[in-house]
Design a protein that fits this description.
Elements lengths: L4 E2 L3 E5 L5 H8 L2 H7 L9 H17 L5 E7 L5 E9 L7 E7 L8 H13 L7 E6 L4 H10 L2 E6 L7 E7 H5 L4
Antiparallel strand pairs: 1-2, 2-3, 3-4, 4-5, 6-8, 7-8
Helix pairs in contact: 1-3, 4-5
C-alpha cells in the first residue's frame, strides 16, 4: 500500500479491504460514532465495515483530488489507528471539509493533529484550493482542540451543514504555510 503522505509517526494511505478489523475498532465505537451522527452511524459489524471500505474506495475513484478518504497507519507497528477525509460539505458542495477520526485508545497522543496537519498541507497545495473547513459539534472539545492544533481558526457557528448547529473552523493556505514548522 503506497502512502500519499508520511509524517514522523504516521502513514496516510488509501483504505484497503484488509483494514476492516482496525477500521471497525474506530467506526464501530460508540464514542467515535456519537460525533459523526447523523452523517454516519456507528458501523454495526466488521462485515459492514468491509462493505463500507469498498464503498469509500469506489467513491474515491470518482472524486477529483484532493477529495477522498484515507487510513491513518502508525509507522512503528503498522496498525491503522484512524481515518481522514476531505469531502465537500452539503448543501452545494462548495466548502471542502477536513475530518479525522481515531480509535479511542490512541486519543490524546497528538496523532489527529499530526495527520490532519499533513493532509491539510498536502491538500492546500492544489491549484484553486485556498481554504479547508472543519465542522465540530459545540460539545466536542477534543475536535475543537484538534482543529486549533492543525492551525484552524474558529469562524463562527452555523446550521448550514447537516441541519445541525456546528462550530466552523477554517484554515487558509497562506496561514498554514506561514506557520513555523
Amino acid at each position: 500500500m503506497v502512502a500519499i503522505l508520511e509524517t514522523d509517526r504516521l502513514s496516510i494511505r488509501p483504505w484497503d479491504a484488509a483494514d476492516g478489523t482496525d477500521a471497525y475498532t474506530i467506526y464501530g465505537d460508540e464514542d467515535v460514532a456519537h460525533w459523526l451522527s447523523p452523517v454516519m452511524d456507528r458501523v454495526p459489524s466488521e462485515a459492514a465495515m468491509r462493505t463500507l471500505l469498498q464503498q469509500w474506495s469506489s467513491e474515491d475513484d470518482r472524486v477529483l483530488e484532493p477529495a477522498g478518504r484515507w487510513a491513518v497507519e502508525r509507522r512503528d507497528d503498522g496498525r491503522v489507528i484512524g481515518g481522514l477525509a476531505l469531502l465537500y460539505l452539503p448543501p452545494g458542495g462548495e466548502d471542502l471539509e477536513i475530518a479525522w477520526q481515531l480509535a479511542p485508545d490512541v486519543w490524546g497522543q497528538g496523532y489527529a493533529a499530526e495527520a490532519g496537519t499533513a493532509l491539510a498541507r498536502w491538500a492546500l497545495r492544489y491549484p484553486g484550493l485556498d481554504e479547508l473547513f472543519a465542522v465540530v459539534r459545540p460539545k466536542n472539545t477534543r475536535g475543537a482542540a484538534t482543529a486549533k492544533r492543525i492551525g484552524m481558526e474558529w469562524v463562527g457557528e452555523t446550521e448550514k451543514y447537516h441541519d445541525l448547529r456546528l462550530q466552523v473552523y477554517r484554515v487558509r493556505a497562506g496561514d498554514l504555510f506561514n506557520q513555523a514548522g
